Amino acid sequence: MSIFRKELANLRAYVPGKPIEDVMRAYGLTSIVKLASNENPLGPSKLAVEAIKKEADHIHIYPDGAALDLRVKLAEKYNLDVNQILIGSGGEQIIKLVAHTFVNEGDEVIFATPSFTLYDIMSSHIGAKCIPVPLTEDFKHDFDRFVELINEKTKIVYVCNPNNPTGNIMTKDEVWSLVERLPETCILMLDEAYFEYAVHDPEYIDGLEVLKKRPHTIILRTFSKVAGLAGLRVGYAFSSSEIIREMTKIKGVFNANRLAQVAAVASLEDEEHLTKTLQLNRESLHLMKNYFTKQHMRYVETHTNFIWVNINMSSKVAYEGLLRKGVIIRPGFLWDFEDWIRVSSGTMEQTEIFLKALDDVVHEK
Questions:
Q1: Containing H/E element for 156?
Q2: What is the 3-state secondary structure (H, E, C) of 217-260?
Q3: Per-residue pLDDT tens digits for 297-312
Q4: Among the four given CATH numbers 3.50.50.60, 2.40.30.30, 3.90.1150.10, 3.40.309.10, the one describing domain 6-43+272-364
Q5: Could you say which residues of the chain have pLDDT below 70?
Q6: Rounded distance, CA 264 to CA 211, Å?
Q7: According to the model, what pLDDT value does residue 33 have?
Q8: Was domain 47-268 assigned CATH 3.40.640.10?
Q9: Most buried by CB count within 10 Å: which residue of 27, 35, 96, 100?
Q10: DSSP string across 290-303
């Protein structure tokens, strides 16, 4: 008899982007361009860094378990009650808390595929029946199929908007078409990790609009992407005060550390950093799109800081070839899309290095 929880037997582990240090050691390289994990190429806000330095002398003291200062700032920014906000140790903890708050063994959860793998991992681990629904041919969530699959056992519907790894959005009309057909007993989780990159588009729906009309909705956002705080692990959820209260019971006492909390508060004040980040993202992606178009490579229009593109060759071969040239991307074979890759935006120099390396690899095949 196995000593492990039975669900682990069929669980596929999440594969993160390859660390820079590993690639340097493996290939004898002295410099790396990492465009695999959708990190902010500008780094964190200088205000956040200064806040961390000031707080460093106090790390011998436990953090505020309620993360009240950060929740107050977010409540003011988004016009919410502070009791509608939960701070997590990165978005992945929020996803885990959602599953552990609502799912009983045998309950069903629905999500698109390919999408963020942790919806499956966190739900399967506690005995849920996970129902992945393939994206449509144009890489959209198939909400009609979602609705067909909903039954009395359906506990959570996950919608990654913008979607990861494809980068595209479900529009306001499309999201409302799903919301109007969801039973009240079903939790809708809107993963908006890339919210700041998409919100400029009038066709994109701010999940808070849904929450106002549907209390059984949870919205996930993060400081890892646009704010450049991925290494500090700080995400947050918006929902009804009732749902936040129940999720808080299992979040852990000190799940958001002191440095993460002060850095997140400071980053909310830095509009200049946000503006520069979004501008650089547009410029980097524009350069990539121009190259892809000239090379007749199909890409999906993105609302994120990465792009999903068909490079017309094995992503496994391209991945290895790029690693040898000191460039890290995410190969599509990880999601069973053999000829596609996901590549993050970078500085203009990093983008040019990537495109030169990709061009070499493509023409070497």
A1: strand 154-160
A2: EEEEEECCCCCCCHHHCCEEEECCHHHHHHHHCCCCCCCCCHHH
A3: 999 999 999 999 999 9
A4: 3.90.1150.10
A5: 1-20, 23-24, 26-30, 365
A6: 23
A7: 93
A8: yes
A9: 35
A10: HHHHHTT--BPPPS
